[in-house]
Each structure stands twice: as structure tokens, then as C-alpha cells.
Amino acid sequence: MKPTLVIVDDFENTLFVIEFTLWQNDFQILKAENGAEALRYFDGRQVDLLITDLNMPDLNGIELTKQVRLLPQYKRIPVLMLTSEKDAKKKQEALNSGVTAIVQKPFEREEFIKTVKRALNLF
Fold first, then answer.
1. Which of 44, 73, 74, 75 has the most Cβ atoms closer than 10 angstroms to its Cβ?
2. What is the pLDDT of residue 16?
């Protein structure tokens, strides 16, 4: 069974690149354009990994992570945060919210896939 990943980014081009990269590596993808929209996927269905942008309208990646962590079925789900953020305090806040790892944008596709597989324990 393919791992199911929720990907969230408010930039359509970035969302497309992430989706295509993951699709090429045989992952099942659920996508959303903001954190509020992404929450609908955390309704009891199997989700193996959350990949979210940090800075988004409506519900940013940190708040999304906190809300997902409050749901018993998803409190241990790995979360990768994508960001172009340079502020170390903001990155630390993300890690404190329960983010598993931070991926700096722009990213190398091969390295990104390795990080995803590592988060899913597929090595």
C-alpha cells in the first residue's frame, strides 16, 4: 500500500512541484492550499506524513501542526515543514510545535525524497 501524504502550500507552482516529485516516487497525495483546508484530511483516514509550508494565510504551518497534534490518531504523525524562512526563532517555534524536520526552499528533489523516506522510516 502506498503511503498517504498530505501536502500543503499556498503557492500553486510549489504545490505542483511537490506533488509531481512525490507522485514520481509512488506516494499517494492529498493536497491543500492552506492549513485550514488541510485539516479536512485529518478526519480518521490513514495519513502517514504531513508536509506543510510555514507561512500561509488562514492557518500557517505551525498552527496546523499544533492542531493535528491535538488529534489522538495523528499526534505522532511525522511533519515536514517547507520554508524559505531565514528567521531562526521562527524555525525553532516550528520545531517546538512538533515539526519533525525543516526542509529549506528551494530544495533538491533527491534530497527531499530522502528526507520524506527517512520521516516514513522507509530506509
1. 74
2. 96
